[in-house]
Structure formats: C-alpha cells, structure tokens
Amino acid sequence: MSSTIRRVTRFALWSLLAALIAAGVVLWQNSYAMDEQRVSIRHGGHTLKGVLATPRDGRKQHGLVVYIHGDGPVDATHADGYKPLWEANAKAGYASLSWDKPGVAGAPGDWLGQTMDDRADEAAAAIAWARTRPDIDGDRIGLWGASQAGWVLPKIAARTPVSFVIAVSPAINWLRQGRYNLLAELRADGASPARIQAEVTRSDTVRRLLRRGASFAEFVTAMGGEANGMTAGRWGFIAKNHTADATRDLPALRGIPVLLVLAGHDVNVDIADTERGYRQALDPGGALTVRHFPDATHSLLKQSVEQSDLLVTLTALLAPRSLFADGFLDGQRRFLTEVSPASY
Q: Distance between CA atoms of 280 and 272, rounded to whole angstroms?
C-alpha cells in the first residue's frame, strides 16, 4: 500500500471516528432526564395534540407545569426548545404539559382564529383534563407562559385555580408593546430619523385601520397596494386581539406565587413597563418575585449566542441547555421547589 493510500485511509478513519463522536455528543446532549408521551385532550369539539413530560423519580404523583405559548405557529415542544425547561421542572418533581397550537403539526383548527380568551379556555380545558389523571397532583398545577402568553395567563387563573405562575418576557398592552418593538428594532438597525418617522406614520395608519375595523383589503389599499408580509389570517388575528391589555386581568393573580422573568436585551417588550404593571397589580399580595437576566434576549437565550444563527444551531445541537441565560433554568427549578415542595 502506497503512502498516499495510507494517508487517505487514515484520514477517512479519523473523519469517521470524529463523526461518530460528534453524533454521540449530539445524542447525549439532546437526551433529557424525563419521560415523554403524546396525549390527546378534547376541547370544544376538537382535539388538542399534546406532550406530557414526567420525571423519572419513582413517585406516583407529580405537580404539573402547563405551558402557554407565545406568538406564532408553535408546536408542543417548541421545536424541542422547551425540553431543557421541562427537564428543570422534572428535577423539581414536576411534570410538564404542552400542546400544538391549532393548525400546527397536523393539529385541527387555526391558531390565527383565536382570541386570548379562546386560548385561556383551551388551557383551562387542558388543566381540567390533567386533574382527572391519577399521576397528576391536582393541587399543584401551575402555568408557564412566554411573551404573548402574558395576556393569557391571568385569564386562565380567573377560570380555574392555579398554584403558581411563571411569566417570561410578558407584555402589558398590545399597542404599546408593538410601538416599543418597532422603535427598538429601528434603533438596532441604525435607522435614520426620516425612516423612523416614516415607519411611525405607517404604524399610526395601521392603528387607525384597526380602530375602525377595516378589512384586510382596506389595509392593503392603505399600504399602497403592498401587503408587506401581512396575510389575511394574520390581519384577522391582530384585529381580534389588538386591544389586549393585561392590566385589567392581572388582579386574578393576586395571592398566587408569580415568578416574573425579564431579559436585559429584550427588543420585543418594554421590561420597565412590564415590571411596573406587575408590581402595581401584584405587590400588595406579596407573592411576586422578579428576576432580571441582563445577558438575555426576549426568548431568554444568551444575547451572545442569539446574535449568530450559526452559533444558535451549533449550541442547540451540542449543548442545548447552554442556549439559555446563566441561572435561568436553575432559577426556574428553585422557584418550583420552593413554591410547592414535592410530596414523597
């Protein structure tokens, strides 16, 4: 065998070994200390397709964290992004329940047809289902919700008893949040004053259209014939929900332990406005805990990771727990442990 052939063979063998090691690392890092099962929940004449993740601790009953998604077409696992959080819950003795939004991953319906009240009804039905299960402690069921879920969480608590709430990057007022997000993204892009004024003027036009209940066709006409990425379904969703304001619903959380999680690099939500709203509504009850993560983005990912698509992908494959801001996962576990200790 020539030296060239030997070198090629060695290179091929080492490449194969490296690929096997990498595959093993990916498999190991994406394995979680919990069991998952698909579940079906009947609600309003259709079926919610969900996932129930339970701890591997030998207990016959567990508390439950019910997940309420943010905006967008989210499936039950949030493309596996929830799994590190579910694992943290499992370490505290809690199961986790989540489901595909209507119309996502083959689920019936269309999430764009929902109001925030519809979403709350859906979650209340899921909690009622969970309370019928012998492996779930019906007295230790709480909520986890991110972003848009901030308008849903207190509505759920007004419908059915919950033991705690974890609110991650929630907003208070839909229109204020939209304006904050618009300006924050323009500043991040280094937009000129002229561009900022043009975008604000366009946003004001959209608000006037929403106030008078304009159709999608009227929106397109007002935008000069350009939909600018808007769809008829999305316009209908915004039209149904743009008056959302958590201020009037937050009192339903008084006396319930609430963990409010806020990110230092949040361009979606004005965290000062959110913290002020939660403190005004809930501090008198003495059950509010606020945690700031200065290095995190709206999704509680590390800002240093999220700014690179490549780094997000590599971290998700090789160290998915490291996607999140330092202390976020452990803080969630500690909150659950302290708020309602598991019974043995």
A: 12
Block residue for tokens 């939500």: 269
| Through-space distance between the first and last CA atoms of the chain, rounded to whole angstroms | 66
Q: Is residue 344 part of a domain?
A: no
Within 13 A of 324's CA, how many CA atoms are on the CB side?
Answer: 18
- Considering only the C-alpha atoms of the chain, give the largest distance between any 2 of them, rounded to a whole number of Å: 82
38's enclosing H/E stretch is strand 35-43
Same structural domain for residues 63 and 159? yes
Among 159, 175, 181, which residue's Cα sits nearest to residue 244? 175
Amino acid identity for residue 145 in this structure: G
Note the helical H segments in 30-163.
83-91, 116-131, 153-159
- Residue 260, strand partner residues: 167, 290
pLDDT reported for residue 31: 66
300 and 154 within one domain: yes
Are both 206 and 255 inside the same structural domain?
no
> pLDDT tens, 264-294?
999 999 999 999 999 999 986 668 999 999 9
Shared-domain flag, residues 281 and 315: yes
Tally of domains in the chain: 3
Helix (H, G, I), strand (E, B) or coil at 72: coil
What angle in degrees, to the nearest 10, is found between the helix axes of 83-91 and 328-339? Answer: 40
Answer whether 169's CB lies under 8 Å from 261's CB: yes
The whole model's pTM is what?
0.89
- Residue 245, Cβ neighbours under 10 Å: how many? 16
- Residue 313 tokens read as 């992908």
Question: Burial level of 110, CB count in 10 A (0-12/13-18/19+)?
Answer: middle
